[in-house]
Amino acid sequence: MQDLHKTIELLLDYLRGVWVKKRYVMICTWLICPLGFAYVASMPDTYQSQARVYVDTRSVLQPLLQGLAIQTNPQQEISMMVKTLLSRPNLEIIARESDLDVTALTPEDYENMISQLTDNIRLRSAGRDNLYTISYSNSDPQMARTVVQETLDLFVEGALGSSRKDSDSASRFIEEQIIDYENRLTSSEQRVADFQRKYASLLPNKGSFHENYTELKILLEQTELTIKETEQQIKALSGELRGQNSQIDSFAVKPSNSDSILTTRYDARIKSIEERLDELSLKYTDLHPDVIEANNLLESLQKSRQEEIDDYLSNVSSDDPSSSLGALSTEIRIEISRLQSLIASLDVRKDNYKTKIEDLKQKIDLVPQVEAEFMALNRDYGITKRKYEELLSRRESADLAQKADVSSEDVQFRVIDPPLAPLAPTGPNRLIGYTAVVFLGFTAGLVVAFLISQLNPILIRGRQLTALTSYPVLGVVSHLNVKEIRKTNRTRILVFALSSGLILLMYGVLAATEILQIDLLSRILA
Description:
Distance between the termini: 64 Å
Shape: elongated
Low-confidence stretches: 67-71, 250-260, 316-325
Number of helices: 16
CATH architecture of the largest domain: Orthogonal Bundle
Radius of gyration: 58 Å
Number of domains: 3
Order of helices and strands: HHEHHHHEEHHHHHHEHHHH
Strand order of the largest sheet: 2-3-1-4
Strand content: 5-15%
Oligomer: single chain
Largest sheet: 4 strands, antiparallel
């Protein structure tokens, strides 16, 4: 609490010191305020013109052309145009179209003009709905409106023209690439055709060399196995034929119908049931229901087959057993003859396979190299063809996109507020300027008074003397001419009040003229 009391006393001492040096406040205010008031009043009027434009990026064709045509993002295009609108090339266009460049007589003036355009042209977004405001301030209201109009035209034309320019550039690039890939595709096709004509005897019709060689080996082995199986069948039939001949000679025994080579309609089903019975035997026992059912069905089929054979043999000759055996021998000879013909055809096929295998063996060193070169040519041809077809598809999409762009714009500009020539000036804000001048004048005076009071201090209380000399103050002797001193102090206070009042009066008059929009400077000059 005692520290707070000392702090308050210290602040009061500072204020008393500033009050004693108040003449410096008057000097500073009269040096700063009139000059500041004159400067603010002489500042030229500026007129601001602005325009508001709405950018509509919604298009009816956009969802209809999804996946059919190349589409750009209009929002990104508008964002890029907003960022690049105030670039130097665009500012030079605006200056040229609005005739501002006529006022620039030197390169320095031209650079200053471009800098002023950069500082004074404002492009702001009014929210998330693509609403933009373009404003510009100038001492000439007509020039302000012209600059805003040219900036608005450049914004609209640039956004629309950039889309079509990009589309045209993309179309030209695709056309150039299509011509290039078409030439490359023709050259690649010619190389493949020349290679096929040159190595027609070495190139396989299908598959690679090793695949064809392996396939021929497998076919040869299968043919040889078939020949061996057929020879075994011929041997079995020949043995049966000899047995039949001996039976015909002796007439002692009837032919065994169960081993007859006659084919019946039950043979395929019997074979299928036997295979299924073998599979079931691996999984189940003989008492399993599926096994029992399969055995019963097999016995039934075998019985039906035997009955069919017996009916056939009984119809051939029921009285002469030798005629039945003779017919059976004739059938065996026919089957043997058929099998021998089959072996002959298989031998021809085997020789053909061997010839092809030998031919491939002779080309074993050359064919893989030719195949590798041919595969490389086909790979290059395939890549070139695929790229060429993709370019053709892209060209169709680009053409469709261009037609859609011509028929309906993806971006539409709607000018909500066109630029107008302002009738009243919008700046400078002289009221704020006058206020700042008054504040600056009094603040500077107080600072100067405080500094001088600290550099040339005046003792106001006895405690200050005690703090400086470390001697106690035993008493205070008042001045003999107190009335004169008080009169002088009142005079000084009156002068300070009149000085400050005149400054504030000037501020009030200037503020009133600004509020009432009275051109004080022109009236004074008039």
